[in-house]
């Protein structure tokens, strides 16, 4: 499915557009920056490894700001405006950060939407703090195929080559990777590098690629892969809330087969495949995602 225009909205740092207030919340992993708005039926949006709260702005634009619903957009530790985590950071820490944020905002339960790694963290949140999650949506979620690829990288060259090669490259380049990416961007070659991630990279607003460079955290990508390698996805069978999972047909970090795996783990999960879509479904086809999640 998808009849909507491709990537019609830019990524913007304009919280006032959606009446969002910025706060800094103290968590067990250090301070995190949160953009939020009070309102009924609040929605918590959790970004992925090359994102921050701003990555969700195309979806907010498509959904007319989600009406009058409450909104919570978190910059996880080390991403966006949040400083690096104080100590190790894995999926357990991620879930605890989200609980700390909800506690600070006085929100007992929310509908959670996670992108990429954020979907992994959201699923874990629904396992360890089920009372806080009314419903869960995985958008281009890196789930079962990513976990297998992280455990068996050489075997994964045939199933998830982009993830496997990126992880190997980051292990080699280490701290220099971010500088290399910025150099590639200055040389005008970023569309070539980002092409596997988006189906029509040259049709993207420049703000999307700028955000991709600014928000990518190589060391945290490697740490997330390490966490996925040891995680038992069978734990997701404990998720009791309604779940929706959306992937792009051309996603190089998640696979359509992930939906089959999720259906085995979560028999009542609602799934959708977006045609002409890569790894950023909420940026590439925000209207379709907003409709599927009931935000429009």
Short description:
The protein has 296 residues and is of the alpha/beta class. The protein is 38% helix and 16% strand. The chain has an 8-stranded mixed beta sheet, with helices on both faces.
How does this structure look, described?
The protein is α/β, with parallel strands linked by helices and 296 residues long. 38% of the residues lie in helices and 16% in strands. It contains twelve helices and eight strands. An eight-stranded mixed β-sheet has the order 1-2-4-3-5-6-7-8, with helices on both faces. Helix 2 crosses helix 3 and helix 4 (144-151) packs across helix 9 (218-230). The protein starts with 20 loop residues before the first strand and ends with a helix.
Oligomer: single chain
Number of E strands: 8
Mean pLDDT across all residues, rounded?
87
**Shape, principal axes of CA atoms:** globular
Q: Which class best fits the helix and strand makeup? A: alpha/beta
Q: What is the spatial order of strands in the main beta sheet?
A: 1-2-4-3-5-6-7-8
Strand % is 15-25%
Sequence stretches where pLDDT stays below 50 over 5 or more residues: 167-173
Rg calculated over all Cα atoms:
17 Å
How does the major sheet shape up?
8 strands, mixed
* Count of DSSP-assigned helices: 12
Q: Helical proportion?
A: 25-40%
Distance between the termini: 17 Å
Sequence of secondary-structure elements: EEEHEHEHEHHHHHHEHEHH
Mind sketching the topology for me?
Blueprint: E1 21-27, E2 30-37, E3 43-46, H1 57-62, E4 71-75, H2 91-105, E5 110-115, H3 117-128, E6 133-139, H4 144-151, H5 161-173, H6 177-186, H7 190-194, H8 206-215, H9 218-230, E7 243-248, H10 257-265, E8 270-274, H11 281-284, H12 286-292
Parallel strand pairs: 3-4, 3-5, 5-6, 6-7, 7-8
Antiparallel strand pairs: 1-2, 2-4
